[in-house]
Amino acid sequence: KAELERIKFSDLKALAKAMGLDTGLGATKDVIIDAILTGKLKQKVPKSSSSDGKRPWQFDTSLNKDPNVKRYYKMLKWARLPESQVYQVMLNHRCRQAAIDKVFGKGPPPVDETVSMPIATPDLTRNKTEEFKPSSHPSHPIDTKELGAVEWDGLLVAKKSDTGSSGVIFALLKKGVVVLKSGNTLAEEIFGAWIAQQIGVSVPAMRLCKAHNGERQAVSKALRRTVSTATKISISRILQRSNLGVMEYVNGPPLVELKACPNHDCLKQIGAILVLDVVMNNFDRMPFIWDNQGNAENILFSKQRMFALDNRVVCPTSRQARERHLSKVEQLCRDYSKTGVEATQWADIAQFWETRTMMGKLDKKSLEAIAQGFEEAAKVACSKLTDQKLQEMQAKLENVSEGGNSQFWLTQVYGIDITFISGIVGTLKKYFG
Are 311 and 192 in contact, with CB atoms under 8 Å apart? Predict the structure, then answer.
């Protein structure tokens, strides 16, 4: 062994090869010496569960639990990096030959695949992900039908949202920023956006990403081309979900950051958002009839209008919860008809304004402007949100996804209780119809 250790590495490789020992690319000097001394390689190649020549990482799920290789397994299986790239990473990290064989097996090292990752060349690329600030760019107009593969091929940089929902990605295309959103509530959010449009509330345009025309595949390819390895893994998880939404990016400050009270029209628009929340039973915005502090991040000020974000319809499954909400709506309307903005619910809005925003105390005139917008929007809701219209919207929602026959999508769609929403609108009609 002492003599072998004094021999050059290249000569050791040649000696091992002459003995019929294929140590493979990346073998260390110690591995080659041990092989020469024993006449065989210590590392055993994992037995393949198939005979089609697949590498171990392609079928051996136990690699995800092996602390020595699970990092590289995820790069291949989840982030879908090219084999040659991951192989080089393992060499750079000075992984033992045994670990490399666990992932790739014995045989020739992987070479660049025909479907390798193209290198993005724009200024905002991989190492620029952290520098990407969506608010520094214009909003890309959202086609209600589709964004073709050409637009996605021009993706410059993408970034997972640092706050809020975990399934949100900001993507910068050549014309501006769009938002990609996944999750188990897309059907409820699209339906909520349709209700908002009926009432006259400004919301981001939203639709599902299509697969039949190659858009979903174009999105996946573009994202994996432009993001860093660390971001690639988290984004891959988002892309693996059943449905992916494409949403308009609203570029503007949230209500919580406004330092001056909006004008009269904007205050009325906030009143309309209150009607939307009551109809949808959306408690994640302003307290009003719910026992919470509110979330001023879900109202944005853009283009002299107030935009409502995260407009999910929440239909309780229990009868008691549904009756509780209907009772609160009845109490709200009764109190407003008797005492106007002196009612408790409006005092909660004033407190929310003072404690959850930077604008300070809300004067009575401004509060009355919000109430005026609430009353006007309530009348519109009573007029447009008929039982027939709600049923038509739900029927339309069934076919929004190409998985219109998908059990997962239909479960979301049928979870929207039209009878519950009709009951809320019916209560509003007693006082504003």
Answer: yes
Query: Rounded to two decimals, what is the model's pTM?
Result: 0.69
What tokens does 170 get? 């900001």
- Whole-angstrom CA distances from 27 to 23, 65, 97 are 6, 24, 6
Tokens read off for 313: 């319809």
Q: Judge contact between 256 and 357, C-beta under 8 A.
A: yes
Residue recorded with tokens 């140590």: 23
Structure tokens that stand for 157 in this block: 């940089």
* Contact between residue 4 and residue 36 where contact means Cβ atoms under 8 Å apart: yes
CA–CA distance, 346 with 270 (Å, rounded to integer): 13
Percent of the chain residues topping a pLDDT of 70: 85
Which positions ≥6 away from 95 have C-beta within 8 Å? Answer: 68, 69, 72
For 169, residues 6+ apart whose C-beta sits below 8 A from its C-beta are: 158, 159, 160, 161, 179, 180, 181, 223, 235, 238
CA 134 – CA 284 distance, rounded (Å) = 23
144 Cβ neighbours under 8 A, 6+ residues apart: 205, 207
Query: Is 212 a residue whose pLDDT tops 70?
Result: no
Cβ density class 396-414: b for 16+ within 10 Å, e for less: ebeebbbeeeeeebbebbe
pLDDT digits (tens, 9 = 90+) for 366-387: 999 999 999 999 999 999 999 9
Q: How far apart are CA 17 and CA 226, in angstroms?
A: 42
So what's the pLDDT on residue 224?
77
Distances, alpha carbon 351 to alpha carbons 272, 300, 301, 364, in Å: 19, 19, 20, 12
Q: From residue 361, how far is each of 101, 135, 328, 355, 377 by CA, in Å?
A: 67, 28, 26, 8, 25
- For position 135, what pLDDT does the model report? 87
CA 81 vs CA 128, 281, 340: distances in Å = 19, 43, 61
Amino acid at 316: P
